[in-house]
Design a protein that fits this description.
Length: 428
Amino acid sequence: MASSPLRPRMVTADAAGNIRDHPRLLMVCRKGEEILLPRPEELIPLPPESTLFFLPGRGALGFDLDSRALEEHEDQAVAAFAAPAHTLTAHPAFRRAPNAPVLPLFAYGAVGFAHNRLYLCAKKVDADRRQEFRAVPPALLERQARELVARFPGNRLIRHLAGTCARIYNCPAARNLCLGRYEAPLPVSRVCNARCLGCISLQDKESPISRTPQCRMEFTPSPEEIVEVMRHHGSRETSAPIFSFGQGCEGEPLTEAPLIAAAIRLFRAGGGRGTINLNSNASLPEAVALLAEAGLSSLRVSLNSARPGPYARYYRPAGYSFEHVVQSIRIAKTSGLYVSLNLLFFPGFSDTEEELSALIALIRQERVDCLQLRNLNIDPDLYLDLMRGLPTGPCAGYINAVKRLRRECPWLRLGYFNPPLEDGGGGS
């Protein structure tokens, strides 16, 4: 006997934040401007370490199976921030009140309830477990952070990462540094040559976003401080160490290319091994060439679109263009670097025909090695308003988009994290 299709019910939150499922209305989701029932194959049990949000000023929408109509509930809509390694396939459906506040900079996934559990519109894109912490006692993490600062009292970068990022922001990369595992973060830059609408560390005074999840770092570390972090991490993570410049608490690391190059040379000259990665907007091709010559291993290029128009609307670049980004990718590939695209995925936009075609063309043209499918942290309405008027075409959906990527770019690795290059990686 065939099993019935998975049809989660709508969940809502009352004024006190209590979350409950609706006895009659079905869950609906949103992809761009389209509101529809989720496809069963894009529903997964809510992953551990995900977070639930209620959405103020946004009435929950559900589907009445009898009347075949959408119905707005008086309670607030609910969303889920997915645990790392999961890419959202849809946003929550809601009706926004005129006075609703702009949502904070998180990614909002559609969530419903069935079979005594919550379900999320998302797919797991990476098997790597490097940002799972449920088995780590908070007391252990706190002790490791304090011990790290005490061991290197004169190192401002360690104090920033262990004292602020790990303990205040709960940054997964900084927490892993304290635990001596996986990938070590290396922020260096206080300035940026872009004004991304969704920047998580600094917003313009006129920005509609009232606060950021993090604050921009207020100092520039020395090459010696950087290398001290690298050597310490390499002494603890001995199997496949990764060192990554370019983090959420800083600006664009390429603006500090000479500093990074000096640190890489110093580390390599001392016998330092491991993958040295740069997370970047790839705005300065000459700087990419400098770092490749110094001993960089990989470049991860963040973008919201492979089309110049949508890219410029979101990144708002100062002194560079999308063509500079493409030129940096080309230089990195010809220099022998492993190149990933960090696509800030937005359901209903990133999986449309125009976006997919441009992305695939860029991947094929430059022979990109890896595509990291990360969620764009932004209020969905804010982003859609930003992109309004641009041609996008029909939405294929995340699952069909991935199938097309695999078919047209069979060499391409799909994942979520930067892979260690010397000892294999964790992507799919």
